[in-house]
Backbone:
């Protein structure tokens, strides 16, 4: 039997641009052309003003640690506990769930509000996940 | 909705709670329904309205032999039953049906006849949360709590005291699963589940069910039990993705549902004699006390740690022991409603003397949905 695998996202027509972006090393967000609202997760209209005129853009990849848990049990398939499940607030405003790499998975190392930057982790030849690491400097 | 026009005239839980390996989830629905019917002195043929969650109305109605003219299959998680009460009250007032049965049951521990929960890989949760290792409520529900604690100055000891106080209530309840006293140190030394939460800050996993019967308040005195009136109701939803909540400092769904119910009931916080706040995890009563407007969030941890919600305290909270110590089959809202009804009938194991108004506040999913019911025993 194969090793249990980490859950793999399956893109939809509305999220395809996001997953193409991560594969190309870009974190892509959407901005409303009408009201300038920046939002996530992807959809082809603005959830604030309902305009269908929206643009995809490359985000800075910078953010900070908004909150997290360090999961001990039960562990998800493909994960070795303890591991942190984090919510990152992006510089552009939206928040997203992620993991924090290059950092001990401890309360001492994971300080709320610490600065983070995006990194990319290829799961296979189709899906690359955005994850975050402590920002340098 | 006008206040006190609809009443609960039947209420019961399954004959047993806890580990029930000899009953499927569907039969647990029936067991609770038959107990509630008996409690109300009714026959199944008297039921013309039906509501349930997870299982479909057609599944449970067919199994019980009910032929309804009104159904509600609202399924928004553990507070679905608060929403059913609200919807049923409106339907009865509108004349769509006369006598509504609401059932909940869950083979949460034994998993007999229960479909496993799954997250499709092409859903938004499947794409943007599941890949990061969330795996069931213990890994998701506590995600906001570190931010909540930092913003509001809540300590780990205060959060632990939630479980301690609720165990005090459970000790007075023969049907509670966990009755042995615990201390803050016991909580903080229990097994780590998802930092910052440890085992004793996470709900139980059990089997069980419950059912309610509602009818017009004008008919309520014809039933054997003391009527419990629906004084006010509220509901809302926010997001199925905990990561996408507007803020982790409060719950938008709580802040919508709670005040709606208080406004409809025309009550102030000082009027509340008894309070239930769905406690799947230890932070929920703190969110609830703040979001329902009882006090600023900053004061909620100290309020509970100082003993104001314990037996004899000024705001009795989660008097059955809650999801942390009484039972938690997965969708606990029904059991919170049952305890509010018992308190209003004056028959609760840990009865609050002279209680006239009970507020029952539920959560669905991970802050995804909310429902609030204000009950009273005076019309």
Residues:
């Amino acid at each position: 039997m194969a090793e249990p695998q980490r859950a793999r996202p399956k893109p939809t027509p509305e999220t395809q641009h996001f997953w193409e972006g991560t594969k190309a090393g870009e974190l892509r967000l959407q901005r409303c052309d009408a009201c300038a609202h920046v939002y996530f997760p992807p959809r082809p209209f603005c959830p604030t003003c309902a305009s269908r005129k929206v643009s995809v853009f490359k985000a800075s990849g910078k953010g900070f640690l908004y909150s997290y848990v360090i999961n001990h049990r039960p562990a998800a398939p493909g994960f070795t506990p303890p591991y942190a499940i984090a919510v990152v607030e992006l510089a552009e405003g939206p928040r997203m769930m992620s993991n924090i790499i290059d950092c001990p998975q401890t309360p001492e190392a994971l300080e709320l509000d610490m600065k983070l930057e995006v990194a990319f982790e290829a799961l296979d030849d189709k899906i690359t996940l955005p994850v975050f690491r402590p920002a340098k400097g | 909705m006008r206040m006190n026009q609809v009443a609960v005239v039947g209420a019961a839980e399954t004959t047993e709670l806890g580990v029930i390996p000899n009953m499927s989830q569907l039969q647990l629905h029936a067991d609770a329904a038959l107990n509630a019917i008996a409690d109300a002195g009714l026959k199944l043929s008297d039921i013309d309205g039906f509501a349930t969650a997870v299982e479909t109305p057609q599944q449970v109605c067919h199994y019980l032999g009910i032929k309804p003219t009104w159904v509600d299959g609202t399924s928004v998680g553990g507070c679905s039953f608060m929403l059913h009460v609200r919807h049923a009250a409106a339907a009865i007032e509108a004349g769509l049906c006369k006598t509504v049965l609401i059932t909940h049951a869950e083979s949460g521990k034994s998993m007999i006849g229960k479909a496993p929960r799954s997250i499709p890989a092409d859903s938004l949760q499947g794409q943007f949360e599941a890949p990061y290792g969330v795996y069931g409520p213990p890994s998701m529900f506590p995600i906001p709590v570190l931010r909540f604690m930092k913003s509001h100055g809540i300590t780990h000891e205060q959060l632990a005291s939630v479980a301690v106080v609720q165990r005090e209530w459970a000790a007075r309840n023969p049907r509670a699963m966990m009755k042995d006293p615990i201390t803050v140190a016991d909580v903080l030394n229990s097994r780590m589940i998802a930092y910052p939460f440890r085992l004793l800050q996470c709900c139980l996993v059990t089997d069980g069910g419950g059912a309610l019967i509602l009818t017009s308040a004008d008919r309520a005195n014809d039933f054997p039990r003391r009527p419990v009136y629906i004084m006010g109701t509220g509901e809302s939803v926010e997001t199925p993705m905990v990561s996408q909540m507007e803020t982790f400092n409060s719950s938008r769904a709580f802040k919508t549902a709670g005040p709606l119910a208080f406004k409809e009931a025309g009550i102030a916080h000082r009027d509340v004699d008894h309070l239930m706040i769905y406690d799947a995890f230890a932070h929920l009563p703190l969110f609830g006390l703040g979001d329902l407007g009882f006090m600023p969030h900053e004061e909620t941890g100290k309020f509970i740690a100082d003993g104001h919600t314990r037996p004899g305290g000024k705001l009795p909270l989660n008097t059955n022991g809650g999801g942390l110590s009484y039972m938690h089959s997965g969708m606990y809202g029904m059991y919170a409603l049952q305890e509010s009804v018992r308190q209003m009938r004056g028959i609760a194991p840990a009865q609050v003397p002279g209680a006239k108004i009970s507020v029952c506040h539920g959560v669905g999913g991970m802050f995804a949905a909310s429902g609030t019911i204000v009950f009273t025993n005076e019309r």
Summary: Chain B has a mean pLDDT of 97. Residues 25-40 of chain B form the longest helix (16 residues).
